[in-house]
Amino acid sequence: MEKPKVVLGVSGGIAAYKACELLRRLTESGHDVRVVPTEASLHFVGAATWSALSGNPVSTEVWDSVHEVPHVRIGQHADLVVVAPATADMLAKAAHGLADDLLTNTLLTARCPVLFAPAMHTEMWEHPATQENVATLRRRGAVVLEPAVGRLTGVDTGKGRFPDPVEIFETCRLVLRRHSLGRSVTEPDLTGRHVVISAGGTREPLDPVRYLGNRSSGKQGYALVRTALARGARVTLIEANTGFTDPAGADVVHIGTAAQLREAVLKAAEDADVVVMAAAVADFRPETYAAGKIKKQDGQEPAPLTLVRNPDILAEVAGAGSGARLRPGQVVVGFAAETDDVLANGRKKLRRKGCDLLVVNEVGEHKTFGSEENEAVVLAADGAETPVPYGPKETLAEVVWDLVVPRLG
Ligand code: CTP
């Protein structure tokens, strides 16, 4: 089988060195990668590095090997173009259709999915010029990842950091996966949508060293995040105790307890089109928190543990009972982990919580939690039931988005 052809465009930012890791991931996973750096980027990483790592010739401008018409052919034959890092200047050129070097020509001739991983200083990212260019590119179907928040070049910290290259690779893989399944990836169907996803499991502290927790790994939530990003969504991930690296392009809020999760979800949901509660939320928390470690006393039975109910976040977001949503038209998705009477319990839960979709799966010692695969039935408030056979959690995530998209206003 022919290897998928990927063009890695590299523009002139210090994060160019991190794109070497992205290139390595792409080549090692069986992609034929042609690196097209800008002239400026060669100040950071030289052509010899790109050529050696990709195994392909490298040039920056349109005057090399003119007989092969590279300014047209490279873009025409690509299955994916990923520009990483994408500077403010590159986003501006791409948005306005300038074509003064090989990479910008490639962007104009490419008819495949195009993904930008921006990296720049916070001021440049937040500048209205950049924001308008990003909006233009997204409107045209490009996937533009949000930069990460963190340390920037020098002593500055803020939004603008190049996302983790391994995570950018994951997004590339998912975009190509959709492409290979014949799905439209040049018109991502979640573009312009704000999606809020909770993932992981909450922990309710008893004292400074102990907590009540659950066995949710967060993998299904992360699969939802990554697939939504690959479909063009702006994603806010509310992360609960997973320990995973932040997905490239998502705004991430790290929380610990159910109360913190509730606060973060309600805030992010204010302008969300979709809220997906994939996190396993503790239904109960200890009534009291001991400021010091609880010690055992010789000859004494342990003190009984009194628990109190946590609020049901999903029911609150879905407007259970009243049906009132935080934002009109918002689509709300819940998950149900069941051990017995799986479907019957799922149907009851869907009605009780008032959400639009409920992903019901059976859980047990070796089922679902922590595994890479999942099997589920997605129940809809309108009565539709969509079984999803045992398979990768990404496949289930794609089915969820397929069911969400037609329900969006
Ligand atoms: N959920 C929530 N807030 C809670 C408990 C659960 O938002 N306090 C959400 C979960 O994120 C999930 C859904 O509700 O999307 C179902 O969670 P589940 O634990 O299966 O249901 P429960 O309401 O806890 O019902 P029960 O434990 O009685 O089965």
How would you sum up this structure, described in words?
This protein has helices at 19-28, 47-54, 70-76, 88-96, 102-109, 122-126, 128-139, 165-180, 219-230, 258-269, 313-318, 342-353, 393-404; strands spanning 5-10, 32-37, 80-86, 114-118, 143-144, 148-151, 157-161, 194-200, 204-207, 210-212, 234-240, 251-255, 274-277, 284-286, 307-309, 331-338, 357-362, 373-380, 385-392. It is α/β, with parallel strands linked by helices and 409 residues long. It has two domains: 5-180, Flavin prenyltransferase-like (Rossmann fold, 3-Layer(aba) Sandwich); 194-407, Rossmann fold, CATH 3.40.50. The strands form five sheets. It has an eight-stranded mixed β-sheet, sandwiched between helices. Strands 2-1-3-4-5 form a five-stranded parallel β-sheet, sandwiched between helices. Strands 6-7 form a two-stranded antiparallel sheet. Helix 12 links the parallel strand 16 and strand 17. The two termini are 41 Å apart. The mean pLDDT is 93. Cytidine-5'-triphosphate is lined by residues 258, 277, 279, 281, 283, 310, 312-314, 334-337.
Which bin fits the share of residues in helices?
Answer: 25-40%
Counting DSSP H or I runs of 4 or more residues, the number of helices is 13
Measure the end-to-end span.
Answer: 41 Å
Q: What is the class of the largest domain in the CATH system?
A: Alpha Beta
Offer a concise description of the structure:
The chain is built from 13 helices and 19 strands.
Features:
Rossmann fold, 409 residues, binds cytidine-5'-triphosphate, globular, eight-stranded mixed sheet, alpha/beta, 25% strand, 2 domains
